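Following up on my earlier thread - several people asked me to post the actual chain instead of describing it. Fair enough. Here it is, all 105 residues.
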Amino acid sequence: MDLTPVARLPNLERLDLWARDFPMEEVAKVAAAYPWFLDQLLDLEDYGLRDSFGLCGKCETLRKEMFLKGRKFLWCPNCDRKGLDRLLATFLAAVEEARAQAAQV
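Reply from S.P.:
Thanks for posting it. Predicted structure:
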């Protein structure tokens, strides 16, 4: 599904979007257009349950939910930090690419 029309809504102030349903490049288009949405995404939510999935098996820290489709869903902010940082850097590069493409239009 193409999110370009959403990224072009001039007065959009709020968006409830389950980003895991869309390819990273499509989510990046929306994040590039709306800095507040990018901030919302990067503020990784805590997984809501303190169960065997929600808590890291190594350090027992509450895991964070990843918003990118096709990627690992739960990440420990401590034990998985390097991989999480790499994945977020990849997403931010996609956001910058989407900004550059939007500027050309």
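Residues 29-104 form one domain. That should answer part of your original question.
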